[in-house]
Amino acid sequence: MPALQDIDAKRQRAPSQRALATRKRVFDAAERVFADRGFDGATIRDIAAEAGEPVGTIHHHGGGKEVLFHRTVARRAEPLSQARRAALETLKRDGTVTAETLLAAFFRPIFDLSRDDPRWRDYARLVSFVSADERWRSISAACFDPTAELFLTELLALRPTAHRAEVAEAFVFSVSAMLALLTSQGRIAALGGEMRAADAQIDHLIRFCAAGLAPA
Amino acid sequence: MPALQDIDAKRQRAPSQRALATRKRVFDAAERVFADRGFDGATIRDIAAEAGEPVGTIHHHGGGKEVLFHRTVARRAEPLSQARRAALETLKRDGTVTAETLLAAFFRPIFDLSRDDPRWRDYARLVSFVSADERWRSISAACFDPTAELFLTELLALRPTAHRAEVAEAFVFSVSAMLALLTSQGRIAALGGEMRAADAQIDHLIRFCAAGLAPA
DNA sequence: CCTTATTTCGAACAGGTGTTCAAGTTAAGA
DNA sequence: TCTTAACTTGAACACCTGTTCGAAATAAGG
């Protein structure tokens, strides 16, 4: 995989407002198309059409399909991780760290962001593609593992007798359940009949995983 | 999506042993390649090379890429569902139905089959591609939802006060955790350091989900 | 204001893509 | 044994893929 380096690595002039706006259009379009069709199902021309830009522009700002994919995932990873870390800091400051509050701190930010901005919903679907495929392991390692590590450490402190590997398993189960809630509304609807309110679903997700994380 | 009809719909002669062996080679190869690269990442020529057959043969037995994909998923769905249903029947006969034993009956068959035959590991990864993408909703609806329905009914009987939608959510969380255990060993290893034995992981998965399913 | 780095643009390229097809081979069923 | 349905084979087809590239337009920095 091509290395991901700073998009403005050897630049000699600041980018114009116009260029910045174009770049934003390119990444927003890439996010939508990659979220809809995955890496292999998406084409540069799909993304170009979605962005309303010519194909050359996608390559210019994206740096090639694989780098564009990586950058599209990375773009929202930092804001998301910061929101998660901020929620964690609040817990630690207030001394209210439990399995339930830890999971809430980790899960809630992406649901909160999705409520306000539909682009975060696309991003969530994109992340689920990244998480599902070992091929993108290095992307999740770079974008999400450092913050996951922080939460894992806290969970481990709550269960001093458990092995790290066991807590890591429980954490992966929890994250997969979170992604399922974000992306498998169709399956839930098919099995469950009527749909529940998003808030009820999120509360349920947190209770479900917290119960699983509790000592046996 | 092209309709999936019986592979031997309007046949006038029984297929030869040779043809049957070729067909098996085609589907085994398709299973491996689709599991590795997903639907869009796989190519007919990849599958042909993996099977050691010319491209025309893949199309002859597979019926086109999309139908081949559907048939490849469907091929092992019935044996898997039967194993799950048999385990469920045993529980009901013995009167040992609990959240924990129900989940064990649903989860264990694919892990047991994977232990004996690596092709079931490929199949599990293929199923996780199908489950992750709304595009294949109709495939999981046809192949997996009927049996899921059976287990959902039993889970609902265990929690008479819960709404069906809530139990459906918990079931989807559980299935996603099962698929994560089958496909995300890389992520578990990255977070957890050393790896635990498969049996310990499966027991943990069942305890994790059973705890989440228990009444609040 | 100039200079020129950067961006915009889309035609062109080499190499795939799924699918078709016609000719030759095999073997089921009478 | 004979007929012919079924299978095997790979070349050919039309279209699509990511990427390149050079010329024109834009605007940052002096």
TrEMBL record, chains A, B:
Methyltransferase recorded as keyword: no
UniProt feature coiled coil, ranges: none
Pfam families documented for this protein: TetR_C_30, TetR_N
Stored SUPFAM superfamilies: Homeodomain-like, Tetracyclin repressor-like, C-terminal domain
Highest taxon in the source lineage: Bacteria
Record InterPro entries: Homeodomain-like_sf, HTH-type_TetR-like_transc_reg, HTH_TetR, PsrA_TetR_C, Tet_transcr_reg_TetR-rel_C_sf
Keywords: DNA-binding
Domain HTH tetR-type residues, every copy: 20-80
GO terms assigned for molecular function: DNA-binding transcription factor activity; transcription cis-regulatory region binding
DNA-binding region, residue intervals: 43-62
PANTHER family on file: HTH-TYPE TRANSCRIPTIONAL REGULATOR RUTR, TRANSCRIPTIONAL REGULATORY PROTEIN
Protein known as: Transcriptional regulator, TetR family protein
